[in-house]
Amino acid sequence: MLATLDNQLIARAEASYLGFALGDALGATVEFMTPREIRATFARYGGIHREMIGGGWLRLKPGQVTDDTTMSLVLGDAILACDGRVEPLACAQAFDAWMRGKPIDIGNTVRRNLVTFRKTGDPVAPPSEHDAGNGAAMRVLPVALATLGRDDETVRAAVRAQAHTTHHSAASDAACDCLVFMVQDALRGGSLRDLYRQRIRPFVAAHPEFAFRPRRRENPSGWVVETLQAVLQALLNNGSFEACLIDVVNRGGDADTTGAIVGMLAGALYGHAALPVRWLRALDPQVRMRCTMQARALVAFAQAA
Ligand code: MN
Ligand code: MN
Predict the structure, then answer these.
(1) How far is the CA of 6 from the centre of ligand 2 (A)?
(2) How does residue 4 score in pLDDT terms, banded at 50, 70 and 90?
């Protein structure tokens, strides 16, 4: 029985990581576009973007991912190298090495605070309420996997160790906590209704700035509040992996990041069988393999702890 549960957990963890990469690759095609521009560009396809075709402002290959996924992968490797612990210095060094590799895209806050880290050697960015972008929230998945089954305070400390290397703001912290607890609940078999009652509703009650209406938030920016509002709406307004991803990326704006976060949550909720095969086939095979392997390795560390 225990072995069966563990296998289910591992399968969901893999689906979450693959869903995350799929959302990044799908959304990147329409990143920074408005919904109107997307409708015009995809007029031949009913005005909806729904295939892994690459392109976008980064001129990606079909199935190619961006900083959201590549930063998460280097973070996960750093956690594995520390035997499953989330060490601020190891995280900052991993991100710095990633930046030296000239990634195809990088957020302004990430760059600025990593440049500061190079000068000071301090892996904790100075606190700033202006650093409320979604750059830390977009890469919480390795932390969620590495801390599965740990007590809430341990989880929160690990969330901050990762996040504060580049984003040291209360709004970012609140969003990161909410996402990590949601994905962990989903990995353990929680339903969307469970997530709403136990995580989303209390989160919005404690942090009213994140309150959202059922109506779609169009063109969500990189501000973590708008990002979370779009993510939560898309998740709650749709009943399948594919439907919530198509919904959120067609709102445009920071579509690779909203797509990645929705893909992470929906992958954990709906499992591997819900991931569209045509998308998985198109995903960069190297990324597909690394996401799968890392999900397994991080869950293995969490279960051994
Ligand atoms: Mn990106
Ligand atoms: Mn983005």
Answers:
(1) 33
(2) low
Q: For 138-164, what is each residue's pLDDT tens digit?
A: 999 999 999 999 999 999 999 999 999
Residue 49 has pLDDT above 60, yes or no: yes
Q: How many degrees, rounded to 5, is the angle at CA 203 between CA 108 and CA 244?
A: 70
Task: Please count the helices (runs of H) and the strands (runs of E) in the chain.
Answer: 15, 0
Residue 56 φ then ψ, to 5°: 75, -175
Q: How far is the CA of 106 from the centre of ligand 1 (A)?
A: 7
- Where do the domains of the chain lie? 2-66+134-152+169-304
Q: Give residue 133 CA to ligand 2 midpoint distance, Å.
A: 10
- Residue 281 Cα to ligand 1 middle (Å): 21
Superfamily of domain 2-66+134-152+169-304: ADP-ribosylation/Crystallin J1 (1.10.4080.10)
Using the predicted structure, report yes or no on whether residue 121 has a pLDDT greater than 80.
yes
Q: What is the distance in A from the centroid of ligand 1 to the CA of 157? A: 25
- DSSP string of 56-123? TTTTBPTT---HHHHHHHHHHHHHHHTTT---HHHHHHHHHHHHHT--S---HHHHHHHHHHHHH--S
Q: How far is the CA of 228 from the centre of ligand 2 (A)?
A: 13
Q: Would you state the pLDDT for residue 203?
A: 98
Q: Which residue has the tokens 């339903």?
A: 191
